[in-house]
Amino acid sequence: MRSFMEKIPTKETLAKLITVTVLNKAGNKIDEFQMRGGTNLWVFIRKRGLPIGSACSGVGVCGACHLKVTEITPQSISIQNEFEKETLIKNQKPTDERLACLCRISGDIIIQADYW
Ligand code: FES
């Protein structure tokens, strides 16, 4: 069980198709895919077959799934809570990055990882 409250996606969010653009470390586009609004980003990246850190199996404590996320539309990603911020700090990751396993997506985004 997760130690934070996730906001339940609205019916409108669930009905949306979200475009996720994937950049490698150098900033080159390596993939683009669509996912249903409200989906957990880490789960979808794994389903897509992209490698992503997962030492804690997506419970938000290892920091391995950290990504840089750019919102194409405002409020495209769930708000970073204290738990996520603490995990980033404890694992010496930039606090302006996000943990994919703790993010739900509701609008188009660009993601970039230093290991792609
Ligand atoms: S998989 Fe461990 S923090 Fe996301």
Automatic annotation (TrEMBL):
Q: Which residues form the 2Fe-2S ferredoxin-type domain?
A: 18-116
Give this protein's Gene Ontology molecular function annotations: iron-sulfur cluster binding
InterPro entries hit by this protein: 2Fe-2S_ferredoxin-like_sf, 2Fe-2S_ferredoxin-type, Beta-grasp_dom_sf
**Name of the protein in question:** 2Fe-2S iron-sulfur cluster binding domain-containing protein
Q: What is the lineage of its organism?
A: Bacteria, Pseudomonadati, Bdellovibrionota, Oligoflexia, Silvanigrellales
